[in-house]
Amino acid sequence: MISVIQNRDRRTRFSAGGVRWLSDTAFVLRIDRNDLDFQAGQYLSVGPADEIHMREYSVYSPVDAPYLEILVKLVDGGYVSNRLAELTPGEPVAVDGPFGFFTIDREYAEARHYFIATGTGISPFHSIVGSNPDMDYRILHGIRGQSEQYEYEAYDRERIVCCTTREDTGDYRGRVTDYLRSHPIDPDGRYYLCGNCDMIYEAFDILQDAGVPHGGLFAEVYF
């Protein structure tokens, strides 16, 4: 997500709780929660305090955690991601939100949910799964290699399929859309897609061609 937020009226100063690096290019930023309420799957606008630049990040932490976390991809030349990576515990950070409707409809809580993501697009699913431990879910995660298997220990490993494009370190060699084309698709499931827009458009077509109704498809586009 790449929008710049310039309206400071709704921004709140929170305190950074520290950075946890998951790879050379991705980290989790922990932020004091300050009693902020959100639904799993929603996102926040986050940026350095007292500056106009903010970016949108899905909440990574579960709803019952006493803190907020976001999963950040370090962008070469990206101002906000690099500034967030430099934050130390106690430093102020601007937060606005939560926003979004990429959430689980309680009417369908007992349905099987399929979460399809590329890269850091797995972030909202980390929050959703952590917030709903009894959920019937499957995750299809497309990444380049093993270093992008962000904290897979948070999931039932039998419920996640890792698709890698540059290494043979996953469960399937190829893109998530290749996997969808070559495996049976459950038309009665609820499908949530998050990440690269090209993947989302292609996966939508594959899923709809397989009989998944439009009402069973939901998307959050990262870039």
What attributes characterize this protein structure?
223 residues; alpha/beta; Elongation Factor Tu (Ef-tu), domain 3; Rossmann fold; 2 domains; 6-stranded antiparallel β-sheet; 6-stranded parallel β-sheet; 34% strand; globular; disordered N terminus
How would you describe this protein?
Helix 4 links the parallel strand 11 (190-195) and strand 12 (217-221). With 223 residues, the protein is an alpha/beta fold. A 6-stranded antiparallel β-sheet has the order 4-3-6-1-2-5. The protein has a 6-stranded parallel β-sheet with strand order 10-9-8-7-11-12, sandwiched between helices. Helix 3 (176-182) runs parallel beside helix 4 (197-209). The protein has helices at residues 79-85, 123-131, 176-182, 197-209; strands spanning 12-21, 26-32, 43-48, 55-58, 67-73, 92-99, 112-118, 136-143, 160-164, 172-173, 190-195, 217-221. 40% of the residues are buried. The protein contains 4 helices and 12 strands, in the order βββββαββαβββαβαβ. The protein has 2 domains: 12-99, Translation factors (Elongation Factor Tu (Ef-tu), domain 3); 106-221, Nucleotide-binding domain of ferredoxin-NADP reductase (FNR) module (Rossmann fold).
